[in-house]
Amino acid sequence: MDVLALVALTGWLYLALGHGAFWRTGPGLPPGDDPREWPEVAAVIPARDEAAVIPETLPTLLAQEYPGVFRVVLVDDGSRDGTAETAAGLADQVVSARDRPEGWAGKVWAMSEGVRAAGDPDFYLFTDADIAYEPGTVGRLVREAVDGPRDLVSQMATLSVRTRWERVIVPAFVYFFAQLYPFRRVTRDGARTAAAAGGCMLVRRAALEKAGGLDGIRGALIDDVALGRLIKRAGGRCRLDLSRDVVSRRPYPRLADLWTMIARSAYHQLRYSPALLAGTVLGLLLLYAAPPAAALAGGLTARPVPLGAGALAWTIMTLTYVPMLRFYGLSPLRAVALPAVALMYAAMTVDSARRHRAGRGGEWKGRLAAGPGHADRRRGRRVLPVRSGTQREER
After folding, report:
1. What is the sign of the dihedral through the CA atoms of 276, 277, 279 and 284?
2. What are 47's strand-pairing partners?
3. What pLDDT digit, counting tens, does each position of 297-309 carry?
4. Does pTM surpass 0.70?
5. For residue 123, what are the β-bridge partners?
6. Partners of 385 in beta bridges
7. Are 104 and 77 in contact, with CB atoms under 8 Å apart?
8. Which CATH superfamily is domain 41-251 in?
């Protein structure tokens, strides 16, 4: 217990002091001067069964009053709820995605269909159907891209925390994402850390073409992180912030909804590796469960090392979580319970691997988007994604 407490404390000292200040929510985009000539921007929105939300979100894009040429292209990705018909009176252009070729993830293919329909703008704004924009947001994104200059400017949307489980899970989700991909390191030139937030990604067309286009991430289930890596590895300059100007209107009223949202991609992020899965779970236990366990055990047994080291590690953990809770308007007292939330995330990660082994990896809105050649162990078959809404099976 002494060793575990000291190792956990060492880990939290590094995370708090030497890990890109991941816990800081940041000021958002800085003010900038208007460009001499406003570049052309095309918003590309892949949408699958989003008829309920787009009447609320699409008007916020159309009301941006962007000074340059700006248009909105919505790609209907095999919807069954009338998404295309609902969007017809809202978006500038609505296109239906063609059959998805083998090897392409559904969303990335829909994004590429939007790029094909958008022509040759200076920038693409890849955004999700559930994202609403505050007035002037597109202009601020473009100012940063031009002034930076930046090839990718991404804003992590403010997620819903209306329900009890959203208030438990959502701030921790953003906190863990920032811990994996510290926003300051993403923004820093020369740093290897690369990521983006899929709800809002303004990408310079020339930089995307230089990096090989969306074909370079065609199989990515976590398309935003993959796109950030693609642009940065090609020499592009990136920026990632947490934003109140970009807001998700998608509700997650039940724990099951949040669980599915996280479990569908967690194992993919670990590259379907049992070794990485085991390491991740052990790391979560060491960093988040060991400090309170050591502090409580040390207090009960009057052992100063686990008591002191565990309590200090737990305190540092709590303090780094407080800024995220404040960003979401929640009580800082919730930060004390972060170890329990981390254990839930460990369970979600394990469940993500279980779903993959059961042949349901990456399932979303009735479509499988699992890793290449994943095994369906219930039927002894290989299931290979082929096209939107369909699968091919090989015995």
Report:
1. positive
2. 76
3. 999 999 999 999 9
4. yes
5. 41, 204
6. 391
7. no
8. Spore Coat Polysaccharide Biosynthesis Protein SpsA; Chain A (3.90.550.10)
